[in-house]
Design brief:
By secondary structure, the protein is an all-alpha fold. Helix 3 (about 50-70) runs antiparallel to helix 4 (about 75-85) and helix 4 crosses helix 5 (about 95-120). The chain has helices at about 10-20, 20-45, 50-70, 75-85, 95-120. The longest helix is centred in the last third of the chain and has 28 residues, at about 95-120.
Length: about 120
């Protein structure tokens, strides 16, 4: 599928790392899909509980994947969330950032699934 059809993901960086190996690309996409699910679940569960250490860990874990999957528009938000969770500061700004991130990740998940579907179905 052409990159222009995606609003959020850009697989150029991933493909530079792995070449044109669709099997490896599929594995990366499946792993990323799982990581997205874990991240979203953590945000939804731990943010209401204000569990800043778990939120920091989840954000720290997803951060390198944001760059690898070309989700450049979220890089600064993820970095800011990571810092705020780690330092437990600027917590009044986190609500809106989490809404933005959750909405984006719902769309990102769909795009990853579309790309996986293209690989699986040729």
């Amino acid at each position: 599928m052409k990159q222009s059809t995606y609003k959020h993901i850009n697989l150029e960086a991933l493909r530079e790392q792995i070449g044109e190996n669709l099997t490896i690309e599929q594995e990366f996409l499946e792993l990323f899909s799982d990581i997205v699910d874990e991240f979203v679940a953590c945000l939804e569960k731990e943010f209401p509980n204000q569990n800043w250490p778990k939120l920091y860990d989840a954000t720290h874990k997803i951060k390198p994947n944001i760059t690898l999957f070309g989700i450049y528009h979220l890089e600064s938000v993820i970095e800011e969330l990571e810092t705020n969770f780690r330092l437990e500061k600027d917590l009044e700004k986190i609500d809106q950032m989490i809404i933005t991130v959750l909405n984006a990740f719902k769309e990102i998940k769909k795009e990853v699934e579309m790309e996986l579907n293209c690989i699986v179905n040729g």
